[in-house]
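Escalation from tier 1.

The customer reports that the assembly of two entities below gives different structure tokens on two consecutive runs. Tier 1 could not reproduce it. I'm attaching the input and our single run for tier 2 to review.
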Amino acid sequence: MNVDILLFGQLAEIIGTKSIRLTEITGTKQLADQLHKTYPALSRHLYRIAINHILVSGDIDFEEDCTVALLPPFSGG
Amino acid sequence: MTEKDIYNRYQRQIILPGFGEAAQHRLGQAKVLVIGAGGLGCSSLAYLTAAGVGTIGIVDDDRITLSNLHRQVLYGMEDIGSLKATTACRILQEKNPGIQILAFAERMTTQNALEIIGRFDVIIDGSDNFATRYMVNDACVLLGKPLVYGAVSQFEGQVGIFNLANTDGRARVNYRDLFPELQSDTSIKNCSEAGVLGVLPGIIGTMQANEAIKLITGIGESLANRLLHYDALRSSIYEITIMPGKSSQLFLPKDAEAFRQTPYNVVCDRIEQDLEIEQATFKQLLSNEGVTIIDIREVGEIPLLDSIAHIAAPLSQWTNKIPAFPGDSWICVCQTGKRSATAAKLLFDTFGATKKIYSLKGGLLKWIEK
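Tier 1 run:
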């Protein structure tokens, strides 16, 4: 399963890049578990997940070649 | 203004296909409230004024400082120290004497929010902190007002409209469908800590004005219940459709009375009351015995703290173990006093029984300004 992950805001600083491509991840829970393991600082950050431009909740399976975005809250003005 | 004056002034937009004098009339009848006259607010206010929105409200209790000027483009050197709301009001009124501009040079609180927001048709969020954003969001849900949300950080920004009925019958969403709970999150840096590219609030603020104008005139497609994310470094846009969340209803106040009782600032207030010290107190404590200054900023944050003996202990490294320090009195410092307040709370929870713990209110940026 090829999945493109986009990282917005300060999440990109933690991961070190604005986008990564993962091949072994099948759903949102597995994605979060994997990323939190590789980047422990990520588990301290609040974020939502969008799949193909739609906000999702809970454990959702990915489709082949979908885009996944991780969105933290923004407050600056 | 006479009908002829109005036509002459707004002619270039009136002649647009789909616009016409009818749309201009709707703008003239509209009442838009802009919360925050900072980076986002300056930009949205300038274009709402230019477009001829009949009544514009500005809420901001802050004063103009030098470091605002790289992005808050309404203001100039002579405005430093003045109130943002009244200064913006004066400047904008001069630009367009034919509309009404109301300045609310006060902090938005649960005691005044419903009354102020209730007087307007469209609300634009240009604030710079989560407490205000959640408060404004909840007030808009209670009062049934569309909220044009906008936020920026570093090189990225977001804009969207909450609390608006969709044309396809989907439920309205509000900010709590995105992030249900107000969190005092140490990891979210604000503009004075993370920095912001000057043009960014200009772009996002102008987009907010565009959304408000589309809502009022009915032209185009609005960002109803969608979030547009803009990356200024890549010049790229990513849109997200927000779906109603199950828990947002849990956190929304049920009615006006519940709203007035909601403690949007309670976490900050508790820290402020107990642990924060004023700049003058900090100065006095520096010459005391047994006082340790703890710089909790990350490596690379400037300005460096050369003039005061201190221990560098970046807050990001406290996750595994809360560090202890020499001395009896510990004063945490950071850029603006926000993160140091959180650090002080962590130290207090662990060592508060035996040590005096403080956080420098206003932070090093304020200390160095003096």
